[in-house]
Amino acid sequence: MSGAPELTLWGASVQHFSLEDAIEAARAGGFTATSLFPYQVAAARAQGIDDAELRDRFERHGVRIAVVDPLATWLPDTRIPDGLPADDPAVVALAPDEMFDLAEALGAEAITVVALFNGLVDPDAGARAFRSLCERAAERGLTLALEFIPGTGIPDLARAYEIVRRADHPAGRMMFDSWHFFRSTPDFELLAQIPREYVYAVQLEDAPAVAAADVAHESLHARLIPGEGELDLRRFVATLLQGASPRWVGPELFSDRNAEVPARWLGRLLGERTRELLA
pTM surpassing 0.90? Predict the structure, then answer.
């Protein structure tokens, strides 16, 4: 790597904890940045914690809310289904301008962009929509990280890259999630060819070599701590970060097991495993 990324404890890793415990986990692991889902912000508001106080609670402990995750309403054919589970990241599916406002209020620099509830996105149409979104985000000083997720409208690395490449906007970058990479089409040759300036954010987690029968459940409930599974994370990190200098790197551990362990222990372990991979 040409520069050190900021160690980021992605919000999914600590979503089962209170705000205080989530902050304690980040501090224990040496993380200086985190992300929040809109539903977590909505829950804080319901407890009487406004956005300014939420931001301050993190920042006074040396952890900043760097990313708001995710924006899922940017494509014209988006249809958010009713009855989403309470832990689904898109429970509070805000419109783009609402997400921009939220990011500014929380002091975040970036927003992840996904196609959770869309048909397969045509690269040309997706690029036009993404470029328009980037233009609006840039006016707010925000960067957008397009994320591919198996089973969604942008299911793999190849399609995400085509959209970002064709959009060709400085505010449009990419998110690389190891679980998504290995559970889609793990094309290491393409991964090595991605322009280094597109490598903006990285999320790390492990998994068994063979996917669970219910892949969606595995994604949201049963990811593994790096080093506890069978994915070739060292190759993923070495290939992706060769010559690149991402802004954010850290674990995104959607796992029900997280709620069963002390926050400080989990944060320390995730910090150790992240540093081992980066080394």
Answer: yes
